[in-house]
């Protein structure tokens, strides 16, 4: 044992100086002056609101995507000691002293900085020279648009980081496949691929495009493995299961975990939870939970209930009635039943209470033991305050003449008998004997006489009743009841077991809060499914933005975005790219596609201009770079949403990686003589110098300093379509 101590312990390590230098330069370019400007910059006004809600543990829904990116931004705020107290109401607002600006912007900046060494490593793993890899990294380093986007509390740099990490991890895994399958490093890079893909999707759904691309490439590579006679059937099955675990099961599990953490952190009720179902709202602390906690679970004959429409868009509303009647004649001359109005009311009110009555009995209280209402049972709904029965008949509704009017029946002693029997249909039942449950059950009320379904039609028409209906939403009996549209579905929100048979005592009871001892908790999967559905289907009204653009504008950078303007000087920050880099990326993509087509035609004629190894290298690079550009760009032509220039940055990143690939290919395979190679090298040096010169020229509007004069700002307007802000003298 002592003999081991005779010689010193020596640890050796290989350090890639290129990689270290690129990382340092990336950090300097993204972190320098990070807290400037100390004011809200463009979409920080949007993401900052969510960070504040995280700090206060208040639930929210963001229809732009999953919560992982928001949680990373909130992590920066948490590490900086942010208490969430700041009013994110306008771009340019000065941050108060309690806002840790540098901490909030740190994670996006770090992600943007690490994209530089990632670009270098990706080209190395694609088997290109270190010179080409260095060129790709420097182009990412000097790309003004990527610098701007990564220096603020925005998500694009984080998204691009995870996308590049996923690509690099898969390439490392694939290269290890040839000689060390199922080794520790093989498993590490394969698992990291799945983790990075799930993180990319968790930041923004745009990450799904690259994830699907890598799945397709992995599928193609496995297809080639099937044809390898050296691999046994058992080995192929193991490879298939390993890929399924790492690239599908783990990403799905991680995606679910993002929502699990999100829902665990945001346990308090807030302004956004009203679009969720009653069951979801009741699971949050405060708000509806304070009202519904401990209500009876099973609805019984004699139950006093409020009925909330499940659709909840554009606002939540409850089945409601009041003493006012429909006018004898409407404005268009049509007649009504002159019965008591039934509406959908968007506020909690004592007139929202109804009593579930057994048609065969007169009592309006719950018996002992309670008799629960089940799917398919026939009930009458008695309005709690006016004691009139919910009714519909063959009279046209006020705003929807093709549907039946719904009312509370008044006996005028005319030839219009009451038709007040309703069949309860539990839409989300597990069996035909399910009990109608508070909050959890979603039910339809089907009119026994006419088969019309109780429906809140005001959601779909967008119109409210006239003054005589107090601008409340229309409720109708929908004759065509195919399907289960959410406007036809209701759930019990507030519920108590009625105890008072006398009307005056019952009115006092209806005004008092409920206090019972049965709680209702949603499972995580139920909450996840509801929240995921809301994210996918909830769309804010897209309005034309001053800096919105079309996908066609992005390729030639015919647009820009003014992110920030100093309140007194000419200092400003714009999302503008390096013009030389953008143009070169377009040329590189065009050259790649033209050369690929030329090679394919020539190979079809059995003419091989380049070796098989060079061809495979060319094709594999195209799958990653051209494929990455295509999947991150072309889908925007199919999207009906407000688009901005920053949506193009993931696609642009892949296109930039293609530039040195094309340059190396041209140098190695088309420049045959030494003279041509020397001339080509000189052109590359001149071209790269122009990239650096443009980077320096636009640095003042990339970093926001130094302040430029009016003349200098006008000189930066290289295109008429660019909106450079000039203050009036």
Automatic annotation (TrEMBL):
Entry's PROSITE patterns?
A: MIR
List the GO molecular function terms.
Answer: dolichyl-phosphate-mannose-protein mannosyltransferase activity
Instruction: Name all MIR domain ranges.
Output: 296-359, 370-427
Which reactions does this protein catalyse?
a di-trans,poly-cis-dolichyl beta-D-mannosyl phosphate + L-threonyl-[protein] = 3-O-(alpha-D-mannosyl)-L-threonyl-[protein] + a di-trans,poly-cis-dolichyl phosphate + H(+); a di-trans,poly-cis-dolichyl beta-D-mannosyl phosphate + L-seryl-[protein] = 3-O-(alpha-D-mannosyl)-L-seryl-[protein] + a di-trans,poly-cis-dolichyl phosphate + H(+)
E.C. no: 2.4.1.109
Say which domain of life the source belongs to.
Answer: Eukaryota
PANTHER family, per the entry: DOLICHYL-PHOSPHATE-MANNOSE--PROTEIN MANNOSYLTRANSFERASE, PROTEIN O-MANNOSYL-TRANSFERASE 1
What is the protein named?
A: Protein O-mannosyl-transferase 1
Gene name linked to the record: Pomt1
